[in-house]
Amino acid sequence: MKRYIATLSFLVFVGALFFVSPSSAQTELTASQRQAIQQDCESIKADLTQLHARDALLRVNMGQHYELISTRLISRFNARLVANGLEAGRFITVSDDYTVNLSLFRASYQEYERDLTALLRINCRENPESFYESLLTVRDSRLVVHSNVVELNKNLSTYGEFVDALDKEIRGE
Amino acid sequence: VNNKDSNTPKQSFWVDHKLLLLLVIAISIVLTLTGISLSMYISSGASQLDLSRPGYQSVQDQVEKHEGIKEYSAVGQIDPGAIAEFKDLYNEQAEKARQADAFSGDPLNPTSLGIE
After folding, report:
1. Are A34 and A131 contacting, i.e. CB atoms less than 8 angstroms apart?
2. Which of A61, A79, B71, B112 could cysteine-pair with A72, CB 3.0–4.6 Å?
3. Per-residue b/e over A136-151, b at no fewer than 16 CB within 10 Å?
């Protein structure tokens, strides 16, 4: 039994190494990178602070824009389709996907902003390693936000294509 | 009897300082409610969208009003005219969103930050 547990523990340890190694290798700082972070600490932080403000503005503007497209246009068009007894299933499916992606966009931005705020609190002169590691995490978080934006835009395109198709159906083309 | 005697001064203190008691209770309620609102403000993500916070002054005046997005009527017939009206409104806004391609690029790439 002890031998079995020891073998199992060893396998778990080796398995864990497989998962841990790539990220730790990725976050490993070279001497020149460490020096660059420590030397340009203030200017890097100033750039990040500007990005923080720009992205907050982008989140507010785009969030409102996506929200208003949903409430002022999509929902109302769906309601009109249903009221006219037309087949609205495909439109509602895309709207639901859009709503889900909008929620994901909000959530992913929250996480990104939290990560970026945490990054800005790190003293890059004293802790260049953790600063770099955190920078890579924030970078990944921002990519997730962008992927949600891409999905939202895809939903908008699909909905537009469905409207074009309905237009043709009604015109009898 | 002893117990009653020992309790008497305490009771008389609060009886004599009703205004102080009122203030303590009022301040406790205010602090509790402020704590709850602050935690809701942070946990809901509202704080992240609050551009009146320090550090966001440079972008405060760039918030778009979105008054231009006209509301499509939810009632009425669906005919070519109604669809054309919707397409005009929708395509304009969808195109704006697509063109913005928000959060694109890679400004957090260590190389672009000068970490090489």
Report:
1. no
2. B71
3. bbbbebbebbbebbbb
How buried is residue A4: exposed, middle or buried, by Cβ count under 10 Å (0-12/13-18/19+)? exposed
pLDDT tens profile A93-110: 999 999 999 999 999 999
Entry field: residues in chain A: 173
Name the residue of chain B whose CA is nearest to A32's CA.
Answer: B116
Measured distance CA(B36)–CA(A37) in Å, rounded: 39
Amino acid at A96: D
CA-CA distance, B94 to B113, in Å (whole number)?
A: 33
Which residues have C-beta within 8 Å of that of residue A51, sequence separation ≥ 6?
A: A116, B107, B108
User: B 26-45 residues with CB below 8 A of A?
Assistant: 45
**By the 8 A CB rule, do A152 and A66 touch?**
yes
Best interface-test mutation with A: which of B65, B83, B115 has the largest number of A CBs within 10 A?
B115
Closest CA to B108 of A26, A52, A127, A171: A52
Residue with tokens 């390693």: A129
pLDDT higher than 50, residue A125: yes
A94 touches chain B (CB under 8 A): no
Binary contact (B90, A40; C-beta < 8 A): no
For residue A28, the Cα-to-chain-centroid distance in whole angstroms is: 24
Q: What is the pTM of this model?
A: 0.79
Count of other CB atoms within 10 angstroms of residue B27: 10
